[in-house]
Amino acid sequence: MKESLTRLEDALKVVLDTVPVLGVEKIGLLDALGRVLAEDIIAERDNPPWDNSAMDGFAVRYEDIQQAHAITTPTVLKVIEDVPAGKFPAKTVGQGEAIRIMTGAPIPKGADTVLKVEDTENTPTTVKVFKEEKKGANIRLQGEDVRKGDCIIPKGKA
C-alpha cells in the first residue's frame, strides 16, 4: 500500500499549532530570519504613496493626444516643467501642455496619461507625439501595491 506524504506547509502548521509560545520579543528585521511573527504586520501607508510615473516621459492630458498619428497628424505639446523623481510638480497640465517626468515622480494635476520618452521627439520646450496612448497609461496608482491598513504578513508566518 502506498503511503501519502504530508506536505511541508501542513507539517509546519501542525508544529506551530502545537508548540506553545514561549514569549514575544521585539527584534529588528535582520534578526527575524527563522522566527515566527507574533502579530500581523499592517501597512502604515499606501504603496505607492501617490500616483506616479512608471516611465521616463511626458505627463499629458489624454484628450490632447487621442488624435495623434505618425504620418497624418502628429501632436505638438508645449513642455512647461521638468519633474525629477523625488520632486512634486509645481504646475498643472493644461490644454496643449506636457510636463517632462521621470520614473517615480508624482503625476501632476491635470495629467492622466504618461507617454514614454522613446515614443516621442522632444526639445527642451516641446514634445511631438506620433501615436495615441491609452488613457491612464504608464501611471502607477496610489495604493495599487498595498493599501494603508492591509495585512502585509499575517501572524504565525515563519
Summarize the structure in words.
The chain is mainly beta. It has two domains: 8-44, no CATH class; 52-140, Beta Complex (Molybdopterin biosynthesis moeA protein, domain 3), CATH 2.170.190. 9% of the residues lie in helices and 24% in strands. The strands form three sheets. Strands 6-3-5-4-8-7 form a six-stranded mixed sheet. Strands 1-10 form a two-stranded antiparallel ribbon. A two-stranded antiparallel ribbon has the order 2-9. A hairpin with a 3-residue loop joins β7 (120-122) and β8 (126-129). The radius of gyration is 24 Å and the shape is elongated. 20% of the residues are buried. The model has no long low-confidence stretch (mean pLDDT 92).
Keywords:
2 helices; Molybdopterin biosynthesis moeA protein, domain 3; 2 domains; 158 residues; mainly beta
Tell me the distance between the termini: 34 Å
Helix content: under 10%
How many whole angstroms does the radius of gyration measure?
24 Å
Number of domains: 2
Superfamily (CATH H level) name of the largest domain: Molybdopterin biosynthesis moea protein, domain 3
Mean pLDDT score = 92
Uncertain regions: pLDDT < 50 for 5+ in a row?
none
Please report the number of helical segments: 2
* Global outline: elongated
Spatial order of the strands in the main sheet?
A: 6-3-5-4-8-7
Q: DSSP strand (E) fraction?
A: 15-25%
Q: What is the architecture of the largest domain at the second tier of CATH?
A: Beta Complex
Number of strands: 10
CATH fold group of the largest domain: Molybdopterin biosynthesis moeA protein, domain 3
Largest sheet: 6 strands, mixed
| Secondary-structure element pattern, one letter each | HEEEHEEEEEEE
CATH class of the largest domain: Mainly Beta
Structural class: mainly beta
Oligomeric assembly: single chain
